[in-house]
Amino acid sequence: MQNSNWKQYFDQKATTHGASVKSSDYYDDKSFYLQRDNILQWLGDIKGNVILDAGCGVGAFTEPLASDNDVYGVDFSAKSLEFAAKRGLKACQGDLMALTFEDDFFDLVLCIGVIQLIPDYVGVINELARVVKPGGTLLVQTLHRGSIQRKLLRLIEKDKKFDRMYSINELEDVYRICGVGENIEFMKMFHPFSYVSHGKTGDTPSNIFCTSFAIKGQKKRG
After folding, report:
1. List of E strands, the chain
2. Cβ of 142: how many Cβ atoms within 10 Å?
3. CA angle, 175 as apex, 173 and 180 as ends, to 5°?
4. pLDDT tens digits for 36-77?
């Protein structure tokens, strides 16, 4: 799907569902809140940071961070951004391939459930890495290509909008190439179960049951 079509798709969802997380593309509300809670717990207590939510939608994911941090939200859906602004984000319509921020601007950049929708995901990660401060963190969450559950689901839901999934090692390599390869860690999720695993090794036998994963790495200082 082209960017203009994605914009129309998410504008329509925001028009229909308003500020609800149903305006995003999660399996259900429970899946959204479970993922948000797990990722925010993984990040730990964050205060006084300048944060970017890249592909923020209606702003529900980073809303808990907005009271103690300076949170920017970028998305191409103007309708979604109306609700993100009401949640306390500094909402900006824009292209993740060409952000308007200066180099080394953010302490933390989050990109949750977005890169599976974008053909040039390497270009997006490189652009997000550009705006991370040295010593800052880039966290990306996406779908896992090696998941047995996802392979079975694709046989059933052949008309699913997206078709891009990623291996854990693939994203780790991209992180290193884009300069955010310091202190890389992973969090793996196993939908529909609430169990998550954390570690510094991407390639493990449990990966076949991992439905989605998050990777975080820091930008090298100096």
Report:
1. 50-54, 70-75, 90-93, 106-112, 132-143, 182-189, 196-199, 212-218
2. 22
3. 145
4. 999 999 999 999 999 999 999 999 999 999 999 999 999 999
